[in-house]
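User: Hello, can you help with two protein structures?

Assistant: Certainly.
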Amino acid sequence: MNLKRTAEIIVECINNNNIMRLSYRKSSGSKRAIVRMVEPYEIKQEGAKKYLYAYDNSGKNKTIKSFLLENILSAQKQARVFTPRTF
């Protein structure tokens, strides 16, 4: 999936409060993908890089995390919606 289409799916999930299944590499050189179920909140530009900020429902450390957009391999909109959390 290309980065433009991935970003479109992420924005759609943010706007509609859809849970999203994310396939992600921790670093650009890594070949191993990590799959997360997240509640996406925003995309933020920090310098030359863009990050997705999302609540990670996967694993034991459920918390807000940042995901470098260029390291997201795929994003899939889920039918389930979430109620936005207040921070």
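That covers the first. Now for the second protein you mentioned:
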Amino acid sequence: MVTMMASTARTLSWEERAQRAGVSSARLGQASTVLGHAPDLVDAVLTGKRPLNEVYAEARRRKATAGPEGDAGGRPGASADAAYAGARTP
């Protein structure tokens, strides 16, 4: 989760980001989905109050109900990129 949040270098591939963090690219994808579709639950994962798997399932439910307009084009990390952009804007 932290890797996805801190990963702003767009020159790194998805696999390189995962390798540097010591996690699978699938796990990084789960974190990206959570960041993009359930950002309010990120702190619960980071503090250990809720496991990533559980929060990921909730994020997938939210993504499914959001429909096509909630999709960021299917590119891994695109949802998280959009979430970060919104978070950085005052």
